[in-house]
Amino acid sequence: MSATATRRSATWAPDSHDFPTRRYDLVKEFVIALVVMLVLTIVAALVFSSPDDSALSLQRWAQEAPNDVVATATGELAGTTTTATYGPPYNTNADGQSLGPIVLPKLTGVTQPIDAADDFVITPLRTLSSDPAVAAALRQWSSASADQRTKWAQAYSDALAAAPDGDPAKVASGDYGPVPALAKGELALASSGALEGLLSSRTSFFGTDSTKPLLFLADGSYLEDQARVQNLGGDQWGIMNETGNYPGQPWLWLYAFWYQIPPFSTSDNADVQVWALMILLSIGFICIPWIPGLRTLPKHLGVHKLIWRGGRWR
Amino acid sequence: MSRTDPAAPMRAGSHDSWTRALSGWIEGLVPKGQWLPDRQPAYVASWIYVFGVACLASLVVVIASGLVLTFGGITWWHTNSFGHFVNSMHLWSVELFFATMVIHLWGKFFMAAWRGHRGMTWATGALAFFGSLGTAFTGYLIQTNFDAQWISTQAKDGLNAAGVGAYFNVMNVGQMVLWHVSFLPLVVGVIVGLHLLLVRRRGVVPPIGAESPVGVESPVAAEPSGASAPPETSGPGAAAAPPGAARPTAGVSAQEVGS
After folding, report:
1. B213 and B255 in contact (C-beta within 8 Å)?
2. B221, B230 in Cβ contact below 8 A?
3. A218 and A72 share a domain?
4. How many domains does chain B have?
5. CA nearest A239 in B: which residue?
6. Considering only CA atoms, which of B170, B152, B157, B148 is closest in space to residue A86?
């Protein structure tokens, strides 16, 4: 017999059925485990309950941070917000993040088309036709060239940023065209509570798709301000936390961890890089039994001696 | 009229109909007597073994509480105190499920539980973990509260960057609800079922460094996978074992202890 033939596989183990046995009531063990888990769950639910901070409404946003609504609407018209400059799957205004030469969002393309200015501001405002100022502003906006629209909106956006507290009432005078009236109309729509429905029910009576109102809300700073108060920011391990003193999703700690350290914390392509790394690590984790070195690591760590103590099984 | 033996056709040929072939295949998945044995190897004597069954038990609580939540719809629990309590049960059973699963996984890692052609048992367990991550994540997305708003608007960037967001829109609550209550639980359920089947098929992995008490050694193999290594075919009960499975019923040869 050759030397190779006499060598055992790195993961050889004797047949478990050759060992001495003892009585073991699997069903009883499961029933006891079920009762224990049920009791633990009920006690935890009674004692700790569960967090439920109500969803932010666009109306609440308009009431608590009206200047942010105006600035966000103006940004949508200027094409400078996150959504307006996102790229796939919403538009073609950017390529999306790249992993070396590979740009995955470009491969999958635009599947949820969003024209930020039109979908978030202009189309909802058309429902305010009874407001003469808004109707006139919409006519002026529609008849202007794309360049002129951008100039007006960018100028007003800059003026808002320079105004104390971003207050539209304190903006320096300038050539802003219809943009102030449009932004003011958007604020009125949001304040009335109508904007949410106009954004979420454009494609369906039932409104089960919250993509547009959420993107519009996320384009402002109000949502993130509220989240940071609750320690939910990206640099606060936000994706694995939840509101209040609750455990959240601690099983996502490794995913959240990469965002806290270079090069990911400073990379423009952090999301796709972290995803690629996590997929590689996950495949490696699944394939441990077939990875030389890793598959025999537990034998050298010796923790198994704490589990199989005393040799009662011999 | 002569009496006929109902078992005769079975003996005559096990694969002369699709039904018999399927029946034979199902019976052969696990060695005879090992679907729900009342005995275990003596080395199964540590608290670490409890966490596998505890994980399974908490999964039952997760599914049951989730089913109750579905009766009222996704916003019911915001306005109904019983609904909020059930939601709390769902949350804490998920936390317990992951806690016990992680301990179970680490325990199996330190036991190198993939030894003896158990690689797929480990792989299905790891896949169940990742499937559960996705299922829990979609649960957070459909809470219809501030958490759901924040998590969905943050998570979209990673998914979009990976090209997944084009088809898996975390801000579409209707889509996420269906993923959370149908496809993902089905996937996790199938993987967990496969995992349990493999556990019963191979039996509980013996201790590291243990030799066979009856002097039976596995044929030698250069690689650990079930595909490349020949199945154990010698020793007590080998004739009844399905291909690649551990040999059945220990009662034939094993010295019984502790009974």
Report:
1. yes
2. yes
3. yes
4. 1
5. B151
6. B157
Tokens of A283: 């495949």
Provide the residue count of chain B. Answer: 259
Q: Dump pLDDT digits (tens) for B184-209.
A: 999 999 999 999 999 999 999 999 98
CB A120 within 8 A of CB A212: yes
| Contact residues, chain B, for A11 at CB < 8 Å | 112, 114-116, 119, 224
Distance (Å) from the alpha carbon of A120 to chain B's nearest alpha carbon: 16
- Residues A302, A215, single domain; the answer is no
Q: A213 lies in which domain range?
A: 58-229
Lowest mean pLDDT: which of A229-243, B41-55, B206-220, B240-254? B240-254
Rounded CA separation B42/B255 (Å)? 10
- Put simply, the answer to whether B149 touches A17 (Cβ < 8 Å) is no
The answer to whether residue B15 sits within a structural domain is no
- pTM given for the model: 0.86
* ipTM, two decimals: 0.91
- Residue A233 belongs to what H/E stretch? none
Rounded CA-CA distance A15/A13 in Å is: 7
B221 part of a folded domain: no
* Residue of A2, A6, A19 for testing the chain B interface, max B β-carbons within 10 Å: A19
- Report the CATH number at residue B173: 1.20.810.10
Cβ contact B37:B199 at 8 Å: no
Touching check for A233 and chain B: CB below 8 Å?
A: no
Question: Virtual CA dihedral for A119, A120, A124, A126, nearest 10 degrees?
Answer: -70
- For chain B, say whether A274 makes contact (Cβ under 8 Å): yes
- Pair A307, B107: CB distance under 8 Å: yes
> Which chain A residues have a beta carbon less than 8 Å from that of B222?
4, 7, 9
Contact B42 A89 (CB under 8 A): no
